[in-house]
Design the sequence.
């Protein structure tokens, strides 16, 4: 079932554009224009409120304040004002995120997605990516159901990458946090370890090199 | 109040105080010296035959004198010839008992002397009744002096005067009718003699004088005493005030003239006195104002240039955008994708420019008001990359980022910081080639410092322009190109933001040939 989003936006063109893009991204959007008093029933089953601060007749922050008295639905604030005092005020009143105009629709969709993303990985539990599954507690790695032997460094590299679930991890971070600084503290050493790890995980290994940064695990649901 | 008037009034007030004090002193001194004179005269008279006469005929002895300049030596009845006197200003004046010779101790005009024995019993039946106060206090040693208002001193024996009751005649005393009882004061002084025995052991001296009023004018000292010093003081003050007043007037007119031409004329009054120092203070204030005005004008000039350049900068992409949109509207299908891509690029440029103009206007005001709030750099980098992903996709540039697992939080102004990172990221994408790469990396060092690095493999900046690229963009001259100058303003703002947060900001050549920009600060 599509997640429900309420949009409070007074500009007709901007509002219809946002609704259009959010709908295409798979969300069910309720669009309200006039800055009327929000009531609790407006937010039943709603996952996110997108609030434009420049509502006529009703200062957006007042809407936010009143709405916060009965609901803790996440709020993404849109504003043309790009200064810290405004942002801090909005966050203090209860906004969860703050976005300044102008923006591309894709940026809005990404921010909404980031806001709604649920943590899928249980910290400390077993993790899988492609045919690889890793159990941090038992320190074992299976490739297509068959346990494979990894060195300590190789295991730690793979665990760090899988823990981040598709996000890039910098070489420097891994050098600092995984390699033994006394013996082998260089990025070149790290690359050697990664190449060994890749060989052990086979030709279809999920480890990607990220330009200028380091490595990441390719996740199935990543574009 | 004018200075001169104020000084004059002050001196006058001081003069009044001096006048009153000397007046009181004179009043006291005069009374005292009159008393002493009477006592001495009584002793003198008794010692030069008065005692003998008194003791030889105590039943009739008394002295009555009425005169101008001297007392009788001795005698029972001693008329004093002289002009009739009516008022005290003609009273005889004699040298005072004090050595410095102040004149003016008033001498009695009409005097009576009677004798008593040591028990205060008179032998002469004509002796008037002794004042109760004198009798009560007399101890045989102290001279006593009392006075009372009302009544006049009557002549003991009018017949003794060879005037037969005539008034005002030469050599005659004035009639009593001339004296009004209410205006007269009768003095009675009881003087014990040194011999302390016989019927003339104590002498009573009686005299009268007009009642003197006690107001300030009536106790006034002689004008010679106070007039000259006060006059000299007044004159001195007026003369001394002259140059002071003139200098102040000159200073006033100089300050006014300087203010009239927007403080360009210096204040030339010199001197080490307070007025000179005041002039110096004015001169310093003038310099400060000039400095402020100059800075204000410079800011205004900058703002004007800024606006002109901005108008120019915005009008070009808008014109291009309009061109593309009208192409699209006319349905010139052949270049459709190209037009859309170009139009999008122009709007990106416009958005970045507008963001920077808002920040730059705040940075240009001298000391921007910087908020100090905790800034989650992980989230900030995430937002920055999300924001630029559409642009990167349009330009076929790969953008990736890496952040540490634990959030890195620094303190600063999140808007300025985000704009700084956005600017560098925007430049890295915009000036890259299709298929190029951009990486935004946040690293936390173990010593609680963070580094934000933005790396690209674009063409970079030629070494000879590396230093100049962060110059203020509108100072680059008219021939500056749109392409390079927005990079300039972006980096310029990034550098300024880093500086105001006390961070290290470094631009170098990246290992991939493009640009590498690092921000480094405390986490």
Sequence:
């Amino acid at each position: 079932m599509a997640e429900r989003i309420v949009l409070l936006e007074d500009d007709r063109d901007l509002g219809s554009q946002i609704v259009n893009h959010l709908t295409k991204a798979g969300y069910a959007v309720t669009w309200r224009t006039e800055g009327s008093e929000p009531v609790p029933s407006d937010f039943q089953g709603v996952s996110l409120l997108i609030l434009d601060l420049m509502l006529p007749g009703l200062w957006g922050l007042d809407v936010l304040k009143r709405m916060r008295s009965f609901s803790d639905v996440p709020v993404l604030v849109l504003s043309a004002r790009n200064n810290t005092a405004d942002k801090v005020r909005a966050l203090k009143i209860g906004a969860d995120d703050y976005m300044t105009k102008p923006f591309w629709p894709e940026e809005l969709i990404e921010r909404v997605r980031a806001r709604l993303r649920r943590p899928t990985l249980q910290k400390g539990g077993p993790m899988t990516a492609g045919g690889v599954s890793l159990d941090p507690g038992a320190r074992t790695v299976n490739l297509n159901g068959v346990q494979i032997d990894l060195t300590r460094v190789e295991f730690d590299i793979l665990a760090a990458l899988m823990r981040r679930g598709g996000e890039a991890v910098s070489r420097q971070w891994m050098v600092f946090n995984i390699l033994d600084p006394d013996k082998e503290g260089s990025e070149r050493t790290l690359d050697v370890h990664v190449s060994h790890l890749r060989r052990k995980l086979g030709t279809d290994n999920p480890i990607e090199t990220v330009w200028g940064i380091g490595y990441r695990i390719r996740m199935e649901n990543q574009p | 109040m004018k200075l001169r008037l104020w000084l004059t009034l002050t001196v006058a007030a001081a003069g009044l105080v001096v006048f009153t004090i000397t007046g009181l002193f004179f009043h006291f001194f005069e009374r005292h010296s009159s008393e002493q004179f009477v006592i001495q005269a009584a002793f003198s008279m008794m010692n030069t035959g008065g005692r003998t006469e008194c003791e030889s005929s105590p039943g009739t002895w008394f002295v009555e004198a009425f005169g101008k300049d001297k007392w009788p030596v001795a005698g029972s009845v001693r008329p004093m010839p002289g002009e009739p006197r009516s008022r005290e200003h003609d009273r005889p004046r004699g040298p005072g008992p004090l050595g410095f010779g102040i004149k003016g101790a008033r001498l009695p005009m009409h005097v009576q002397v009677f004798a008593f024995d040591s028990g205060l019993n008179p032998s002469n039946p004509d002796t008037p009744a002794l004042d109760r106060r004198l009798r009560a206090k007399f101890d045989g040693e102290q001279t006593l002096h009392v006075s009372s208002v009302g009544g006049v001193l009557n002549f003991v024996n009018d017949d003794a005067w060879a005037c037969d009751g005539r008034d005002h005649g030469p050599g005659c005393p004035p009639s009593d009718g001339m004296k009004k009882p209410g205006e007269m004061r009768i003095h009675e002084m009881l003087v014990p003699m040194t011999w302390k025995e016989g019927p003339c052991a104590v002498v009573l001296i009686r005299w009268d004088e007009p009642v003197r009023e006690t107001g300030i004018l009536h106790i006034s000292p002689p004008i010679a005493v106070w007039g000259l010093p006060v006059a000299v003081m007044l004159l001195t003050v007026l003369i001394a005030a002259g140059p002071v007043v003139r200098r102040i007037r000159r200073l006033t007119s100089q300050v006014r003239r300087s203010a009239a031409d927007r403080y360009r004329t210096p204040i030339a009054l010199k001197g080490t006195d307070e007025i000179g120092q005041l002039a110096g203070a004015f001169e310093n204030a003038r310099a400060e104002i000039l400095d402020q005005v100059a800075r204000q004008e410079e800011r205004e000039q900058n703002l004007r240039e800024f606006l002109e350049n901005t108008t120019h900068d915005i009008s070009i992409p808008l014109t291009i955008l309009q061109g593309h949109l009208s192409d699209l509207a006319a349905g010139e299908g052949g270049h459709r994708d190209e037009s859309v891509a170009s139009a999008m690029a122009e709007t990106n440029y416009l958005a970045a420019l507008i963001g920077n103009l808002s920040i730059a206007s705040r940075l240009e005001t001298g000391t921007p008001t910087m908020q100090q709030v905790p800034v989650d750099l992980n989230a900030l980098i995430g937002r920055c990359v999300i924001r630029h992903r559409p642009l990167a996709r349009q330009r076929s540039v790969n953008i990736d980022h890496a952040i540490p697992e634990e959030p890195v939080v620094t303190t600063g102004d999140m808007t300025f910081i985000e704009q700084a990172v956005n600017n560098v990221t925007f430049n890295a994408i915009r000036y890259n080639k299709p298929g190029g790469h951009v990486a935004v990396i946040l690293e936390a060092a173990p010593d609680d410092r963070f580094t934000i690095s933005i790396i690209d493999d674009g063409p970079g900046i030629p070494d000879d322009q590396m230093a100049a690229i962060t110059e203020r963009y509108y100072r680059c001259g008219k021939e500056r190109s749109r392409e390079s100058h927005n990079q300039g303003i972006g980096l310029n703002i990034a550098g300024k933001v880093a500086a105001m947060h006390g961070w290290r900001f470094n631009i170098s050549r990246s290992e991939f040939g493009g640009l590498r920009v690092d921000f480094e600060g405390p986490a």
Observations:
- Chain B touches chain A through 39 residues (CB under 8 Å).
